[in-house]
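Same chain as my last thread, 517 residues:
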Amino acid sequence: MIKLINPNSMSKKPVISVIVTVHNQIEFIHETIGGFAQQDINVPYEIIAVCDNCTDGSDLAIKNSYPNVRIEKVEYKHPCVSRNHGIDLAKGDFICFFDGDDTPHSNYLSKLYEALQKNPDKNLAYGRFNYPGFGLEAARLPACNYMEWTPSWLQYGPINNTPMMIRRELIDKGARWEENIRTREDYEFTHSLVKAGAKGVHVRDVIWDYRLHEGSIWGSNRAAALATHSMKFLQKKHNLNAPDLETMFISILSRRDLFEEYFKNIAEIDMPRNEMHYFVFIDSNDEELIKDAIERAEKLKFASLRVFVTNEESLVDEMSFYKRGMRIARNVEICMNEAKKTHGGAKYVFMVEDDTKVPADSYQKLKKHLDSNENLGYVSGCEVSRAESRHMGIAHLKGDEFGQVIHRINPHPKKKGLENITSGGWYCWMGRVDAIVGQKYRCTNEENDERMIGPDAYFVYDLHARGYDTQVDWSIWCDHYSSTDGWLTPNDAIMYEFEHLHRNDQWIRMMIKREKK
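reply #2:
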């Protein structure tokens, strides 16, 4: 027999009510109910197990092992009805929802409760969960790595999942689970919560484990048909006929010292922000940086805003070229996949790096090129680059039959005009989503390769090798921030390029090291 860590939790008025819906999940009971019975939280809480149409003895297993758990046997045969029943029974000022086949970590309640205590203006908290094989390690952002709370995105997709903690005030204002659908109910419930005044806070720690199995809807072949029906219901109920926005603008941020310049520049770019998705990807675990970035991004008033935080230490100062390059490559890959997954799928992506300032007309010029050439996969401006050479990142690469780069030439910089290239950067560029999604990423390793070719250069090179046009617009000159020289202007680069790098239009041979098989 297992007792609650808080032995008086049932004799005192509970602060938190945990509603667990159970349906023939006896094999998971000790991980789910047992997990809640042993939480590391010091406030009184109650556990209400709503056993809906259980025929496998789940209710008896709970009764025998967890005497402090309240068991409700019902025959609703519907999880949403069971959750609403649990709401009617709940006594706590904070209410949690959880499914009987998932597993809470021991800090599940404490993390959510702490987040709401620290943020009295928020009334909903949710966290990340473990889903092996998905997430950052696979360069994907499924539900386990939820976005920050940005209600503008609700028109296009969900923010949180069923496991969450809410203040009772949202229930008192009419938030209930929709009983006419069997899937996407968490997405619908979020809409109900928002109408009741929900303001969410994201706990970026992994605090529970998701289990996919044959007995669950998403683990069976029933999910697709049910999901289609549910989405049609949601679209009608909440008027979710969201337009298919053509372009997603991307910011990958890790340098707070440049936020003032960066966001000011974004506001000055001539682009229809009210007709574009905005995906802010924050590669940091700095809470002040994250808060600052979100506040600045919200002020730009894009049609939709999504913010994702890696919650990892930034690699801005990492000395390894390979580690830094591949981290950036992973982040870009995630953003490209997300562009494809947006409502209807974005057609183009437009990106400006956080250490780059671009001309106000850059977006309009780049988009015009893509609109006029359906085979154009990538087109960029040119940037004053980092390092002593200050070269602009624009080049023609020549490779061997193995795809290895053996020659590189930097073309003469021009004042205007398009030029076909096979190497470019991610500082200010626009690309065609269908061409980019699925693109492989690679980078030379500074420990065994002297070429120092980054993932952006290889990205363009490989895209070109697949048959897409890759171009530079020489009329788009971008300033770049160097940690040693501050902002480097286009004039600095042009003069340096003419005086040092482009004499005689000479090829720069780059030898590669190969191990002989």
